[in-house]
């Protein structure tokens, strides 16, 4: 099959964002991570799964827009500055929350994080998909926490007629309750998505007795064209109708894992854009993606994630930091 790019851009730097220029719309949480490290130090860092994905796309030179729910307060101002510095545009109404949400992350001696949350989430009133939206990405807290989750599902369903839908469950057990109930809600969104990325840790919580790749195959049967399972330091595997593609992860010294999966996800959307596979009109081409193209995408994704884990916080690389594709 041909993967001749139809939606690529020769301008690799963030460009002024025309109202209906081609872009990716991320829908979900931006928040402040209060990070408690194993050495006893504490940092406040901007983050949030969907904000991290948008940030990664912005740093890779894409027009990335974020529908979120933060306050017009000091933490919200810090988030806006962090996102804006990487070329991310906030959707109208995104700063109308009473306060900016907080996630408290506790890092173990290996840099792995566990989280507690103090947050609220809703989709700003009037949010809609415009003509330039090539892809809509959502997941994590925003896709399961009411009252916003119902609005997210409606927005994703409405986007399918014109845009690619990408989804990362990015499970947060502290917020998602019973894993069986969470899996039901998550699989409803899997069925709406064209591309799903999920970690082996998420699947260990959602389906503890199941092989992650077997779950990925089950999810593929619900409707997506591609389901990717990330395997931490072991790389990633993608499942499509044509079979599986596996790649190894580069070996790096891990500082922490904050934002690693989100940077992988952003790089995956970026790679699909490069391959001309974003947009509802490219849905069948996406289903027919060849193994070489998919392997190349995954190799780029694990490279981006490896850079992210090699430094503190959700700090994905800029395009200039990556080797040529």
Question: Terminal Cα separation, in Å?
Answer: 20 Å
Name of the top-level CATH class: Alpha Beta
Order of helices and strands: EEEHEHEEEEHEHHEHHEEEHHH
Strand order of the largest sheet: 5-4-1-8-9-10-11-12-13
Low-confidence stretches: 1-18
User: Biggest sheet, in brief?
Assistant: 9 strands, mixed
The share of residues in extended strands comes to 15-25%
So, CATH architecture? 3-Layer(aba) Sandwich
- Give me the secondary-structure category: alpha/beta
What is this entry, summarized?
With 325 residues, the protein is α/β, with parallel strands linked by helices. Helices cover 33% and strands 21% of the residues. It has one domain: Ribokinase (UDP-N-acetylmuramoyl-L-alanine:D-glutamate ligase).
What would the keywords be for this entry?
325 residues, UDP-N-acetylmuramoyl-L-alanine:D-glutamate ligase, nine-stranded mixed sheet, four-stranded mixed sheet, 10 helices, globular
If you had to describe this structure to a student in words, what would you say it looks like?
By secondary structure, this protein is α/β, with parallel strands linked by helices. It contains 10 helices and 13 strands. It has helices at residues 49-59, 74-85, 148-159, 173-176, 179-190, 200-206, 212-220, 260-274, 283-287, 291-309, and strands at 23-27, 31-36, 42-47, 64-67, 88-90, 102-107, 113-118, 133-139, 164-168, 195-199, 226-230, 236-240, 243-247. Strands 5-4-1-8-9-10-11-12-13 form a 9-stranded mixed beta sheet, with helices on both faces. The chain has a 4-stranded mixed beta sheet with strand order 3-2-6-7. Strand 2 and strand 3 (42-47) form a beta hairpin.
């Amino acid at each position: 099959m041909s993967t001749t790019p139809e939606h690529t851009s020769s301008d690799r730097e963030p460009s002024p964002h025309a109202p209906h220029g081609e872009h990716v719309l991320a829908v979900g949480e931006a928040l402040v991570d209060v990070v408690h490290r194993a050495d006893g130090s504490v940092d406040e860092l901007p983050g949030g799964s969907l904000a991290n994905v948008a940030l990664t796309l912005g740093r890779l030179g894409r027009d990335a827009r974020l529908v979120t729910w933060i306050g017009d307060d000091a933490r919200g101002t810090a988030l806006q500055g962090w996102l804006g510095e990487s070329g991310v545009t906030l959707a109208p109404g995104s700063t109308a929350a009473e306060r900016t949400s907080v996630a408290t992350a506790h890092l173990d001696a290996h840099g792995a994080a566990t989280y507690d949350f103090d947050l609220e989430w809703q989709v700003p009133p009037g949010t809609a998909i415009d003509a330039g939206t090539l892809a809509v990405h959502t997941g994590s807290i925003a896709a399961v926490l009411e009252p916003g989750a119902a609005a997210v599902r409606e927005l994703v369903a409405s986007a399918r007629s014109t845009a690619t839908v990408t989804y990362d469950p990015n499970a947060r057990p502290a917020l998602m309750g019973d894993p069986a109930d969470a899996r039901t809600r998550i699989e409803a969104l899997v069925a709406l998505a064209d591309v799903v990325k999920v970690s082996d840790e998420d699947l260990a919580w959602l389906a503890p007795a199941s092989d992650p790749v077997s779950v990925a195959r089950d999810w593929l049967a619900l409707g997506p064209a591609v389901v990717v399972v990330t395997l931490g330091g072991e790389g990633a595997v993608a499942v499509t109708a044509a079979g599986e593609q596996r790649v190894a992860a580069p070996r790096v010294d891990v500082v922490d894992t904050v934002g690693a999966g989100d940077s992988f996800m952003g790089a995956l959307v970026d790679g699909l854009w490069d391959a001309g596979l974003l947009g509802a009109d490219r849905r069948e081409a996406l289903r027919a993606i060849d193994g070489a193209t998919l392997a190349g995408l995954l190799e780029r994704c694990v490279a981006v994630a490896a850079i992210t884990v090699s430094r503190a916080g959700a700090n994905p690389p800029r395009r200039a930091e990556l080797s040529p594709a």
